[in-house]
Write a structure and sequence with these properties.
The protein has 116 residues and is α+β, with helices and mostly antiparallel strands. It has one domain: Dimeric alpha+beta barrel (Alpha-Beta Plaits, 2-Layer Sandwich), CATH 3.30.70. Helix content is 25%, strand content 31%. The protein is built from two helices and six strands. The protein has a four-stranded antiparallel β-sheet with strand order 2-5-1-6, with helices on one face. Strands 3-4 form a two-stranded antiparallel ribbon. The longest helix has 20 residues. The chain is globular. The two termini are 14 Å apart.
Length: 116
């Protein structure tokens, strides 16, 4: 088995892109259903987290930016780690992620090195 990190990106800074409380409830229902479907397949999920919209970036020049890193209006929104057979299985899981129902969103998949 291999461990992959699924990294979720979305527009976290634009007020127009923010969702209402009702929409967030609906999205969380979809999100939890997606996570449950992964677990039902016997796939281990670990390290999941949702990031706040606040952050600081420290550059190698010691320059500090009082905002999360944003590229093309997207920033990290969270991640999960999945333990699967191969990249193809990680892709299949990521393609079902409800975050992809939004506009200007993405899921990046990165293989991680297992400790030891």
């Amino acid at each position: 088995m291999k461990t992959y990190c699924l990294i979720f990106r979305m527009n976290i800074l634009d007020e127009k892109a923010r969702v209402s409380e009702e929409q967030m409830d609906e999205y969380m229902t979809q999100w939890n259903g997606w996570l449950d479907s992964i677990s039902r397949r016997g796939i281990n999920i670990a390290g999941g987290s949702h990031f706040s919209n606040e952050g600081v970036v420290i550059r190698s020049s010691d320059k500090i930016e009082n905002s999360p890193y944003v590229h093309e209006h997207n920033s990290l929104a969270g991640f999960i780690m999945v333990e699967v057979r191969d990249l193809a299985e990680a892709i299949d899981i990521a393609k079902e992620c409800p975050i992809l129902n939004g506009q200007n969103t993405s899921v990046e998949i990165r293989k991680t090195d297992s400790p030891g």
